[in-house]
Amino acid sequence: MAKKTSNLAVWSLVSSILGVTGLPIIGSIVGLVLGYMAKRETDASGGALEGRGLAKAGIIIGWIGVGIFTLSLCAFVVIMVLTFRVS
Fold first, then answer.
1. Torsion sign over Cα 68, 73, 78, 79
2. What pLDDT was estimated at residue 87?
3. Where does the pLDDT of residue 86 fall: very low under 50, low under 70, confident under 90, or very high at 90 and above?
4. Is the N or the C terminus of the chain less surrounded, counting Cβ atoms within 10 Å?
5. DSSP 87
6. End-to-end Cα, the chain, rounded Å
7. Which class for 3: exposed (0-12), middle (13-18), buried (19 or more C-beta within 10 A)?
8. DSSP string across 18-57
C-alpha cells in the first residue's frame, strides 16, 4: 500500500514559494505555519504520511522570505531616513 503525502506539507511549500515570489510576507507566514503543522502531522502519523521533507523545505523557504522582507524593510527605512533627514 502506497503512503499518502501530507496536504499540509504540499501547501506549506506552495505558500512559501509564493511568499518569496508573489505575496511577500503573507505567503511566507502561511508557509511557516503550515510547515510546522505538517511536520507535527507527519511525526504523529507513525509513518503513514510522507511529506516531512516538503514541510522542512516550506519552513526553510518561509524563513528566507521573512528574512528578505525584513532586510528590504530595513533598507527602505534607512533610505527614507537618509533622504528626508533635516540638515
1. positive
2. 62
3. confident
4. C
5. -
6. 72
7. exposed
8. HHHHTSHHHHHHHHHHHHHHHHHHHHHTTTSEE-HHHHHH
Give just the sign of the alpha carbon dihedral 35, 59, 9, 5. negative
Matching residue, cell 533627514: 85
Which residues span the domain enclosing 41?
4-84
Residue 46 sits at the vertex; the CA angle it makes with 43 and 52, to the nearest 5 degrees, is: 35
Sign of CA dihedral 40, 19, 66, 54: positive
